[in-house]
Description:
GO biological process, one term: L-histidine biosynthetic process
Strand content: 25-35%
CATH superfamily of the largest domain: Periplasmic binding protein-like II
Family: Belongs to the ATP phosphoribosyltransferase family. Short subfamily.
Bound molecules: adenosine-5'-triphosphate, 1-O-pyrophosphono-5-O-phosphono-alpha-D-ribofuranose
EC number: 2.4.2.17
Shape: elongated
Order of helices and strands: EHHEEHEHEEEHEHEHEEHH
Number of domains: 2
Low-confidence stretches: none
Domain ATP phosphoribosyltransferase catalytic: 55-203
Pathway: Amino-acid biosynthesis; L-histidine biosynthesis; L-histidine from 5-phospho-alpha-D-ribose 1-diphosphate: step 1/9
Amino acid sequence: METIKIAMTKGRLAKYSIELLEEIGIDCKELKEDSRKLVFFLPQHNIEVILLKGMDVPTYVEHGVVDMGIVGKDVLMEQEWQLYEVVDLKFGRCKFSVAGKPVIGNGKKHLRVATKYPNVTRKHFAQKGQSVEIIRQEGSVELAPLMGLSDIIVDIVETGKTLKENGLVVLEDIADISARLILNKVSYKTKKKEITTIIDLIEKKVN
Ligand SMILES: Nc1ncnc2c1ncn2[C@@H]1O[C@H](COP(=O)(O)OP(=O)(O)OP(=O)(O)O)[C@@H](O)[C@H]1O
Ligand SMILES: O=P(O)(O)OC[C@H]1O[C@H](OP(=O)(O)OP(=O)(O)O)[C@H](O)[C@@H]1O
């Protein structure tokens, strides 16, 4: 039997991803240990799990370095990837929203938008016919309107706590986000039996 390689997003999605694999019978004890290891071989299942930043998960899947991956829909929306998105895993739920100060001077012809997601932002405002200048940020996006760097932001909102504690409000929702199972297109053909078995077990668990 061929080894199945899975790329997992570190951070918020990791705990739920590990829980899901355990629920379908994959022993992930090693993955739960507090370590700096990034590659885990689970010999009893012939599965290899690697841990990556979200944006790097589809890159590994697309290049066929791994067969499948678990990643947020936000990452899949930000860039076009050559891969299959097969299951909505229903955890890691949050939203893409436009947010800003409660009063942002409605009717402004040109808005400055700070975001970690320039493509999602560009597409959203293009659809609305709103002219924007996108200011790319790496984090703490909420700071931008507070400091006068931007008029508004496009960011992920989960509980709304970060917005609230910084005096910002949601002005508009863009899309619902959750974690997705993604597949390499070639692996799906060459390792069809093993991959289909895993997808079926996961689908049964989440639906
Ligand atoms: N409150 C949230 N903030 C950010 N992402 C969230 C949130 N809730 C769920 N997610 C999902 O979790 C995924 C991983 O987010 P997380 O911030 O843990 O990852 P990361 O790799 O550390 O990214 P970064 O360093 O860019 O913040 C996101 O891509 C998103 O799909
Ligand atoms: O609605 P909430 O539950 O408050 O969650 C949303 C916040 O969490 C994320 O930031 P993260 O913690 O990843 O830090 P960052 O600012 O470095 O991106 C996101 O960018 C928001 O700032």
